[in-house]
Amino acid sequence: MLTTPEPEAVLNALETADRPLQRFDIVMEVFWAAGYDRATYRTVYDLKGGSVQCSTLIDRMRADGHLILLSSTQWKRILGTFNTTRVHKQRGHYWYATRDQHTRWTQPDRDRDNRITTIAARLEAAALPPLHVRNTTWTDEGSLVHDTDPDAQHTALELCTPDDDRVAEVTCNYSPTDTDNPISALAGAKASAELLAHAPADIAYLLNLLHTEGRK
What we know:
- It contains six helices and six strands, in the order H-H-H-E-H-E-H-E-E-E-E-H.
- By secondary structure, the chain is of the alpha+beta class.
- The strands form two sheets. The protein has a four-stranded antiparallel sheet, covered by helices on one side.
- The radius of gyration is 31 Å and the shape is rod-shaped.
- The chain starts with 6 loop residues before the first helix and ends with a helix.
């Protein structure tokens, strides 16, 4: 029978449960895994001295960084939700997981934060001023016309700064030899240009929303 639990037994109990557990429930999982009868040893109070040794081990493992102890609110923030079924009606809202579990469960948050940081740095490095779209349309002969003119064949949608410096350009050739649907082609090009023109301000707005939500 189990008298002195080993750290590996505690780690295995949590990995097998695949969710955070409270202290006394970890103790029972360790002893049940060691062969203790579930019907006879239903709670820590049936284990006598063994539960004290296991609890001491849990404290030591937490101090050494092998176990992570967080409140149920913090775990729900990480996991979205988790099974809070307990053997004991133990007071308190703190639950344990292994260090490896915590790393795995928080990896998506770290990936998200890293990507947001990269996007913010890219936006700051570009330092783009407000942009507008400048439309230039011409015929096959090179005559400038409105993009609704029947002879219009080519449109350049330039993304420009307030000083009319060109930053980028979306072009559209919509003669019958280039597309079956000139109206749709031009509409798509205009939508793309507007998307790009407003992207810096839109991204900055969304990043600010994320920052605000993160402080709540």
